[in-house]
Amino acid sequence: MIHRLYRGLTTLGGPLISLYLDRRRRRGKEDAQRFPERLGRAGRPRPAGPLVWIHAASVGESLSMLPLVERLCARRLSVLLTTGTVTSARMMAERLPEGAMHQYVPVDRMAYVRGFLDHWRPDLALWAESEFWPNLLAESRRRGIPQVLVQGRVSARSFAGWKRVPGFIRKLLSGFDLCLAQTEEDARRLRVLGGRDVRCLGNLKYAAPPLPADRDELARLERAVSGRTIWLAASTHPGEEGIVAEAHIAQAERFPGLLTIIVPRHPNRGPDIARELLALGLSAALRSTGELPHAGSHVYVADTMGELGLFYRLADIVFMGKSLTVGGGQNPFEPARIGAAVLFGPAMDNFPDMAPRMIGAGAALMVADGAALAATLGRLLADEALAARMKRAALAWSAAEAGVLDAVEAALSPTLDRLGEAHARP
Predict the structure, then answer these.
(1) Range(s) of the domain holding residue 193
(2) Which residues are catalytic?
(3) Does one domain contain both 124 and 235?
């Protein structure tokens, strides 16, 4: 009943959907040049042979899929990765291996969905995490396209919401032949909601390779900050930059020449952050203007995209944002993979399994608030042996967890092997 209502509303609501998309395009949230892709009109031809389609909502989900994309390409399968955001499209243009391509996911209106599926004719669909588009799922199932949920995640809030519409979520999940959950709790929730063949093999974020960094640019930055004590606040959200600044102020006298690097989650906030820092009496250099940190810079605001790998290599101590003033947390595996001592706040809801495991392995510390962040930062800066132990623990833990990719590939192998023997869908 709900699904029929949803389909009817998305069909009759075409004019309203168009207005909404036009507004997003004017605000820069849609790619003007590739906008037809959002209407189900492909921006490139379909390659010959079997095609695996992976849908990942945005940056985090698409990055976690990259190791799996590489494995699929190694099997000589063509891979189509869809996302819904401009930022993720730009990142995938730089990161996707040969044999894989990116397109924007069509808006979930039946006319757009059918245009997308008519063109691409995927032989297998892999859905990442928890973004379920009812029309796209249902039409894929109607066409007999095998579908697998990878990195399945159901938050406590989503679980409570889906339980209010049990028939609707059961119908959505029935389209998946296999559900691979991130954690045992995710697996339990998926089973309760009606998922079939639910397994927990681990989190593919553990299989992600270290974020890349330009060697020449890293050397240039190292020369600019030579001799200074450095720490990094990564993927920060509004309110957290002020907390980070207070931590810097609390430790600056104890550690002369201390440099704090802030990489905001949304780079367009860089100038606002610089003004906030200035009001606190701190001098900030903005990377987006081409500045390098200089002797008078207290804070370096790296308001650019795709350079976190650079700054994770520059700083030994990394605080992960979205964990103090905003809930959810950002991925702490990325700095651990490069060997940083990791700190984060208590609001790590997006990583309910990863965060406690990192703490248990000695690879991370949780700070309760801004005061705890300042105190813990001071302790790590003063105790080089403690920081070194955390760095070694982070490298060892992240390396030990990387085997999840083999388990996921093994679970998909029966289906993938059949694709390798078959021609593309007619």
Answers:
(1) 23-209+403-421
(2) 61
(3) no
